[in-house]
Design goal:
By secondary structure, the protein is an all-alpha fold. It contains eight helices and no strands. The longest helix is centred in the first third of the chain and has 24 residues. The radius of gyration is 18 Å and the shape is globular. It starts with 5 loop residues before the first helix and ends with a helix.
Length: 178
């Protein structure tokens, strides 16, 4: 994600003349990291594209009411996460994903392929409660600091640390059992 000056961008987003150009800059700066964030939540490309588009539509609609109390990326990540989880609920995808890969090796010398590892990790992530999955995603995959995650989720740092710890333990347990 490229660095942007939040205050200058926000000023242009709130101006009548520079709003469209500033929003294009915002989209270019955040499209890829938001896509990755949403993809880890919804799981497939087509749904991710839909949710990403909805995220930017909602951002455009509410940009005038955004006062800059948090960083722009925090605001966008919050919108993206809410849109992604709403999408999952609407499409009834909140049920646990069935693991479709087949692994029948039981000897300790057996090797998993990269695809099998990814499928197992995806299944482990899907087994997490929504909040733990979101915190794990933001901390592990997006490499955000707890203060940044706090701004995105509105959850205290202590609760975030606990959620992340429990998510890691559940993922480890899932992977050792499967």
């Amino acid at each position: 994600m490229r660095e942007i000056d939040d205050k200058a961008l926000l000023k242009r987003l709130h101006s009548r003349l520079g709003k469209r150009k500033a929003f294009e800059e915002l989209v270019k700066a955040f499209q890829q990291p938001l896509y990755a964030h949403i993809r880890r939540i919804v799981g497939n490309h087509d749904d991710t594209d839909d949710v990403l588009q909805n995220t930017f539509v909602k951002a455009w609609r509410y940009i005038d009411s955004f006062k800059g109390d948090s960083a722009i990326y925090s605001w966008l990540y919050r919108i993206a996460a809410n849109e992604a989880f709403s999408h999952l609920k609407q499409s009834k995808k909140m049920e646990k994903v069935e693991y479709t890969g087949h692994y029948d090796g039981t000897q300790s010398g057996d090797q998993l392929t990269g695809d099998e590892i990814v499928r197992k990790l995806d299944a482990a992530l899907e087994s997490l409660p929504e909040k733990q999955r979101q915190v794990f995603d933001l901390k592990y995959f997006s490499e955000l600091k707890y203060q940044e995650i706090e701004a995105i989720t509105g959850t205290s740092i202590g609760a975030l640390k606990a959620s992340y710890y429990h998510a890691v333990k559940k993922i480890e347990a899932y992977l050792s059992e499967h």
